[in-house]
# Entry
Amino acid sequence: MAVKVLIPTPLQKLTRDQATLECSASNVTELLDSLEQNCPGIKARICNEQGELRRFVNFYVNNEDIRFLSGTNTPLQDGDEVSIIPAIAGG
# Structure
């Protein structure tokens, strides 16, 4: 199933400067693996050494934060849109 992934600018150097990618995955965990397979090195920027999403990276599926869904087990369906949003700090 095709899922559209919106890539933030800081990660686009790993996606050959593409702002959007299409991946096949049935959940966010599979999506991370698919991204890594197509864009080597991207998973290390998104996940920690244990394979968990880094605290400063937010994932949204159809504008819903996966932290309030099923985390990386959040199911994906054909046509879903996944946004990867790095947290911004400052003041």
The mean pLDDT is 94. The radius of gyration is 12 Å. The longest strand covers residues 81-86.
